[in-house]
Amino acid sequence: MNHLTAKDEKLAELITATLPFQMDADPLAKPYEALLESIAYQSISGKAAATIFGRVKALSATGRAPTPQEMLKLRKPVLRKAGLSGAKILAMKDLAQKTIDGIVPLARASRETLRRRTRRTPRLRPRHRRLDR
To answer: Of 107, 92, 101, 23, nearest to 55 (Cα)?
Structure first.
């Protein structure tokens, strides 16, 4: 930023007047919840995904993402009615089982830990991006 502000006076004014970047991450979200939401958002528009994931959260007793145990109990027709594809249902149920089995960490983990734990779990690995980059 210093380089840009030194080169252009008007840009320097804009940079100074602009608030620093901040993310509104949910501090209560756990890796399971974040991964569950990311599955819902894969390959569709953000607005459609938000609507669908909102319906999925409504299926939970808490209004948050269904727990792994709740996800495994939810029947496929109920999840299809919420708007999930068959592939996303399989991925979410696989994620829930892997969380119960201890493969998906319950707290934040390093990229290396996630890569090591999901190496043999194709549904949990992004197809176009790699965790080890």
So the answer is: 92
17 located within any domain = no
CATH number of the domain bearing residue 54: 1.10.340.30
Q: Tell whether the model's pLDDT for residue 74 goes beyond 80.
A: yes
Residue 49 lies in domain? 31-124
What is the predicted pLDDT for the residue at 133?
Answer: 44
What does the pLDDT read at residue 56? 97
Q: Alpha helix locations (H) across the chain?
A: 2-7, 9-17, 31-41, 46-58, 68-73, 76-82, 86-100, 111-118
What residue type is assigned to position 121 of the chain?
Answer: T
- SS3 call for 121: coil
